[in-house]
Specification:
CATH topology of the largest domain: Growth Hormone, Chain: A
Strand order of the largest sheet: 1-4
Number of domains: 3
Largest sheet: 2 strands, antiparallel
Order of helices and strands: HHHHHHHHHHHHHHEHEEEH
Oligomer: single chain
Shape: globular
Number of strands: 4
Distance between the termini: 33 Å
Number of helices: 16
CATH architecture of the largest domain: Up-down Bundle
CATH superfamily of the largest domain: MFS general substrate transporter like domains
């Protein structure tokens, strides 16, 4: 089957374009200080430990606040949270560019921490809201659109240090922050006009879902573990790849390109894995593929201690390509899998659940990104790079094996399930004198038996919700207004209806 563009509406295309621009600019603002902030910090008297923590605190704050945003997304409002996050990151980017005007060691470091903490809160709000809006606005192509936005974000992380360094050379420390922070403001204005309105609050939130309830589901817990070990592998290489490659005496340009290989591969291949998920390939199968790719990649970058010989540059490059393929597969599949699994276990197919999973994804990724570099430094000092990579290989092997066991042992969802509704019971009581009544398929059945309806849907899904936009959440197919019907195969993309022709025939 050929890779074809999805049939989006005009508003969906506009939403996707604006989201891509916002993700790209946001990633640039988050990452642009890497090439020149350490130099400025040292000029103010800061140590490597101090300005290293300025970078590390960012991921820690994202980890802590993302679940809060996800759980309260419906109350705050996704559009407000999205735009508020962009404005916060843009403001903090500009303020960070004014730090060179601050005199004194401690005022500089304290303000650096405060700005990065607030920036992290804005970034967490932006990411959590964007993932949830994608799940709501693109119900039939969640994985594809999620992966596409991850591509823009990954490209922003690559371009950020490059553009930041160029603007720094042209206009000094303040210039890159002022220029790119302003660009992020403009993208926020675009989203204010293009994004659909929040609409009314969701109705099917009788019980507030919590992160702990979600993590009790084995499939979601596995997806979270997959995200953590993947982001740990990224952080491991960020902290240790440069000293590992010093043996080749590479120029700064070539060394910088080495760091782009896995990120570039991730950005290019993420949409393909999203397309696979949307075409009903089990996300857990793609997770296993990702684990295998990361294992191969890390075994080649070292290379692994059980391989004879020393490090070869071209083998290391191929290993980084495999690592990029692996992180693309795992990060895309994990979000898709967690959301589908939650809905299949009875969580409402609405914005509240999308926000909860978005917060979980953002939080667990940040946790791995915080642990990865910290653990990498310890392993590098005590075991060396080649032996240290075996820890990452082992963690991915464990996750991959457990996922395979889960796939083999998971109970298959029955094709059809007989559901007796209250309306059927009342209808049956009124028809007892007639001796028979019709089933949904048009056949007669003896009186005294409730009218049964064959449906096909994941166990625990308590309603049928189609959601091509925020406005139709109270539409015809709302769970409180819907009687049971016979539908064809349910969509794997969170509640959309695929057999529309069959449904129309029932009208």
């Amino acid at each position: 089957m050929l890779f074809t563009l999805p049939d989006f509406t005009k508003r969906q295309w506009l939403t996707l374009v604006v989201f891509g621009v916002a993700d790209f600019c946001n990633a640039i603002c988050v990452s642009l200080q890497a090439p020149f902030y350490p130099k400025e910090a040292e000029r103010k008297g800061a140590t490597a430990t101090e300005y290293g923590l300025v970078f590390g605190i960012f991921e820690l704050v994202v980890f802590l606040v993302s679940p809060f945003y996800g759980q309260n997304l419906n109350r705050i409002g996704p559009k407000f949270l999205f735009n508020g996050g962009i404005f916060t990151v843009g403001t903090c980017a500009i303020l960070f560019g004014l730090l060179d005007k601050v005199e004194g060691h401690y005022p500089f470091i304290i303000l650096s921490f405060l700005i990065r903490i607030i920036e992290a809160m804005g970034n967490a709000a932006f990411l959590t809201a964007s993932f949830a809006i994608i799940a709501k606005e693109f119900p039939d192509n969640v994985a594809t659109t999620f992966a596409s936005l991850e591509t823009f974000f990954g490209l922003g992380l690559i371009v950020g240090p490059t553009v930041g360094g160029a603007l720094y050379e042209m206009g000094g420390y303040t210039t890159p922050f002022a220029v790119l922070g302003s660009a992020l403001f403009l993208s926020a204005i675009m989203t204010a006009f293009v994004l659909p309105p929040n609409g009314e609050a969701e109705v099917n939130t009788k019980e507030g879902a919590s992160l702990f309830k979600v993590l009790k589901i084995p499939g979601v817990l596995l997806a979270s573990c997959s995200i953590i070990v993947t982001s740990m592998s990224i952080g491991f290489l960020q902290a240790t790849l440069e000293p590992h490659l010093r043996q080749f005496s590479l120029s700064p340009v070539v060394l910088g390109l080495m760091f782009v290989i896995n990120g570039g591969t991730y950005a290019l291949t993420a949409p393909f894995y999203g397309w696979l998920c949307d075409k009903k390939v089990l996300p857990k199968v793609i997770t296993v593929m990702g684990c295998i790719s990361i294992i191969i990649g890390f075994s080649m970058v070292g290379p692994a201690p059980f391989f004879p010989g020393s490090t070869v540059l071209w083998v290391c490059i191929v290993g980084l390509v495999f690592h990029g393929l692996g992180i693309a597969a795992q990060l895309v599949a994990s979000f898709t899998d967690a959301l589908r699994t939650c809905v299949a276990h009875g969580f409402p197919n609405n914005l509240e659940t999308y926000g909860l999973i978005s917060g979980l994804w953002t939080s667990t990724f940040a946790l791995g990104a915080f642990i990865g570099p910290s653990l990498a430094g310890i392993l590098y000092d005590h075991m060396g790079f080649r032996n240290g990579t075996m820890v990452v290989v082992g963690l991915n092997a464990i996750v991959g094996i457990v996922v395979v066991i889960f796939i083999c042992c998971a109970k298959r969802t029955p094709a059809y399930k007989e559901v007796v509704t209250q309306e059927d019971l009342k209808s049956n009581m009124s028809l007892t004198d007639s001796g028979s009544h019709l089933l949904s398929n048009g056949h007669h059945t003896p009186s005294g038996r409730a009218n049964s309806v064959a449906i096909e849907r994941p166990p625990g899904m308590n309603g049928i919700i189609t959601c091509n936009s925020y406005k139709n959440r109270h539409g015809t197919w709302h769970m409180k207004d819907t009687g049971a019907v016979l539908i064809g195969p349910y969509s794997s993309s969170y509640g959309s209806l695929e057999s529309r022709g069959f449904l129309e025939s029932l009208a």
